[in-house]
């Protein structure tokens, strides 16, 4: 099969010269899941070049309104042509062959600028890929580009001094979340089919919830954080992780296996859901919408009820109960991670503090304790006490989860809030945006797998997701539960029309597209 057979024919030529071949227009291609695209490529129905060109066209139209994708891979079309040639030679690299994906701009990509939203890294081009990126490429994935992040991945607003602010596809006046906000916005707006985010305080799950996609925070330590800036060292290694994001749960499962270096069995989407129902029938689920830290909106509580009903209808045993330890999760997050993250920022910006953006600068200005020997001892003792308490409460929770292996909860107190907000109102109570996401922070503290899946929308059209949490390394279980909820909530608007809060914007300064070059920076 030649490259002409794959996609360089005109529509008229295709109808006469390639009879029986299914012709997809750009909109049809970008609405497919990664799983579907991989099957279409494998069956030689669609070319990797066609897929990439469809996404480039969509980015050209939509990204100016969102600012979700900040750098395109300069060789993205070359990658697609290589994949196309390999298909014609019957050399498939792996399950993602010819599928374009995006990567959060905190994760190293060889030959593609990686900034972490910091002026200090504005021109940094890594020489090697992060391990999870390398594994995606080995499986045949095409790296489409990089997605926006807050400076040094500080949640929950994706904005930085290098690229500026990312908007929520459902309401441009609202945040896409953070710190994987660019990734979530890109996937939700069909600028990307799937990709990689990272999560220390809900930074995969919160943007997924805000934008109406699915996102998995794996068990801490399951996936390598090699090549991520900020580094996950010291206490931060207890809660930080990278994970997949996508519009469909089956795509999370596929990317997770590849990123973990595991073998991937071929399975249809219908079989995936049916296997999930069979696997989880009779399992116990604890459901709660009040963690004792942050109240939630009525619509958020209703979304949890909808998800609980879906699981119950599938044969799971759902009851309302707050798991032990969750009320202490947010406090422990501060005690374990806040000081460590601040110290890491101070070291990273030492001598170049003036180049920090507003959010990082405010952290750098915070008063530090005098670095006396006595204060160092006190700091170490506080950290040790927090670690000991974390281990004790985690052990108690895991013992409890032997009988109740699944937890269903909100991702946060509210849907997407307005840009720049430091506080949100919940049932007439004003709370900080940090406190509003205690539900997510808790499971970083305890290092458990948690997946966010969209369930409903507010009366004003904002997405609402819920999270399903499982025991350590039980990613298959939480993804199975998420697949059941996803299928039950399939009528939640996900189409390309009547969904977004913006009009298509004509390109202004996109030289790579205007000139016909093979990609470049947005």
Layout of strands and helices, then pairs:
Layout (H helix, E strand, L loop, with lengths): L2 H6 L2 H7 L8 H5 L3 H9 L5 H19 L2 E4 L3 H13 L11 E5 L26 H8 L3 E6 L11 E2 L3 E2 L1 E2 L2 E5 L5 H8 L5 E6 L5 H7 L2 E4 L23 E6 L2 H11 L9 H12 L3 E4 L10 H16 L3 E4 L8 H21 L8 H7 L8 H29 L4 E5 L12 E4 L2 E4 L5 H8 L4 E8 L5 E8 L4 H14 L22 H5 L7
Parallel strand pairs: 2-3, 2-8, 11-12, 11-13
Antiparallel strand pairs: 1-3, 4-5, 6-7, 8-10, 9-10, 9-16, 13-17, 14-15, 16-17
CATH level-four homologous superfamily name: Amidase signature (AS) domain
> Alpha-carbon distance between the termini?
34 Å
Whole-angstrom Rg: 22 Å
Proportion in helices = 25-40%
Biggest β-sheet, characterized?
A: 11 strands, mixed
* Proportion of beta-strand residues: 15-25%
Number of helices: 18
* Structural category: alpha+beta
What is the number of E strands?
17
* Fold-level CATH name: Amidase signature (AS) enzymes
Reading off the top of the CATH hierarchy, the class is best stated as Alpha Beta
* Count of spatially separate domains: 1
Q: Which outline best applies?
A: globular
**Second-tier CATH architecture:** Alpha-Beta Complex
In the sheet with the most strands, the strands line up as 1-3-2-8-10-9-16-17-13-11-12
Average pLDDT rating: 90
Contiguous runs where pLDDT drops below 50 for at least 5 residues: 1-20, 504-522
């Amino acid at each position: 099969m030649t490259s002409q057979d794959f996609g360089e024919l005109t529509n008229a030529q295709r109808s006469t010269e390639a009879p029986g071949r299914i012709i997809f227009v750009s909109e049809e291609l970008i609405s497919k899941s990664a799983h579907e695209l991989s099957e279409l490529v494998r069956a030689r129905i669609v070319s990797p070049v066609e897929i990439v060109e469809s996404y480039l066209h969509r980015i050209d139209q939509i990204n100016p309104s969102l600012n979700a994708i900040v750098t395109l891979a300069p060789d993205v079309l070359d990658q697609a042509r290589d994949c196309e040639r390999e298909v014609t030679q019957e050399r498939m690299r792996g399950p993602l062959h010819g599928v374009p994906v995006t990567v959060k701009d905190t994760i190293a990509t060889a030959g593609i600028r990686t900034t972490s939203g910091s002026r200090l890294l504005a021109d940094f081009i890594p020489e090697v890929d992060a391990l999870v990126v390398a594994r995606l490429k080995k499986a045949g994935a095409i790296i489409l580009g990089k997605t926006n992040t807050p400076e040094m991945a500080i949640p929950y607003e994706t904005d930085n001094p290098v690229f500026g602010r990312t908007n929520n596809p459902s309401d441009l006046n609202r945040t896409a979340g953070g710190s994987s906000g660019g990734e979530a916005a890109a996937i939700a707006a069909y600028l990307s089919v799937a990709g990689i985010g990272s999560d220390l305080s809900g930074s995969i799950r919160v943007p997924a919830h805000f934008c109406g996609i699915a996102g998995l925070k794996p068990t801490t330590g399951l996936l390598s954080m090699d090549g991520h800036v900020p580094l996950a060292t010291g206490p931060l290694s207890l809660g930080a992780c990278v994970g997949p994001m996508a519009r469909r749960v089956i795509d999370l499962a596929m990317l997770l296996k590849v990123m973990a270096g595991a073998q991937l069995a071929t399975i249809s989407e219908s079989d995936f859901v049916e296997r999930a129902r069979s696997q989880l029938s009779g399992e116990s689920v604890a459901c709660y919408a009040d963690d004792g830290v942050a109240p939630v909106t009525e619509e958020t509580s209703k979304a949890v009820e909808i998800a609980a009903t879906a699981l119950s209808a599938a044969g799971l045993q759902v009851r309302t109960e707050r798991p032990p330890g969750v009320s202490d999760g947010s406090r422990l997050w501060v005690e374990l991670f806040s000081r460590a993250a601040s110290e890491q920022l101070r070291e990273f910006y030492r001598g170049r503090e003036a180049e920090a953006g507003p959010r990082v600068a405010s952290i750098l200005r915070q008063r530090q304790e005098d670095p006396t020997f006595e204060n160092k001892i006190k700091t170490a003792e506080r950290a040790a006490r927090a670690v000991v308490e974390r281990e004790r409460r985690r052990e108690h929770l895991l013992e409890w989860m032997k009988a109740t292996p699944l937890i269903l909860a909100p991702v946060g107190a509210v849907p997407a809030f307005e840009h720049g907000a430091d506080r949100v109102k919940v049932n007439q109570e004003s709370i900080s945006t940090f406190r509003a996401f205690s539900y997510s922070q808790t499971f970083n503290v305890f290092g458990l797998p948690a997946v966010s899946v969209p369930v409903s929308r507010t009366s004003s059209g904002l997405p609402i997701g819920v999270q399903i949490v499982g025991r350590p390394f039980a990613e298959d279980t939480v993804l199975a539960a998420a697949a059941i909820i996803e299928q039950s909530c399939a009528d939640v608007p996900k189409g390309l029309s009547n969904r977004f809060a913006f009009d298509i914007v004509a390109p202004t300064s996109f030289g790579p597209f205007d000139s016909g070059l093979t990609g470049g920076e947005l």
